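Note to self: keep these together.
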Amino acid sequence: LVTSGYVRVDSTLKSNNTFNGELEGSVLAIIEETDLRKDKIAANRIKDWVTAPMLPIHAKHKTPYLVPNTSHFIQASNDVQACPIFAGDTRITMIQVNKLDEEIPKRQIIQLLEKEAQDFLAEILNLELHAPIGRLNIPVIITEDKKTIQESNRTPFEQFLDEKCYYIPGEIVTVR
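Structure:
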């Protein structure tokens, strides 16, 4: 259904250079099987790109410039830990996509999607949008999958604090 504005950004995220010209004008930026735990450069780039209102574009052989950030990132991976999510995260919504009971052949699904495209577009164009909320303009959905990953990424110290300490609103507690 998306015929323009779709880009793959795996190589741009992992590259040692700063070229990212393909992000200009992108609406969907897809990351496929890139492990952000193992690549700190990629992890830091995507953090910046997700939240920046203006995106710095550096196309090869061109001077860098800023454009409005229209990108929305989708990361797909078979490894649930490939996208590290920590407590307090406000950038990531996570869902698990289960295996289909019955797989639809590719040609058939494309035909069905093309048939639905006009009605889908009409629905989107008639959708009433609420005023933007927060730095990402929409609230991040907290799913059970996201909570589970956040829990698994806690340090031993964070686990200790959660299990053995408690918070009293308005009180300042000093640990010696």
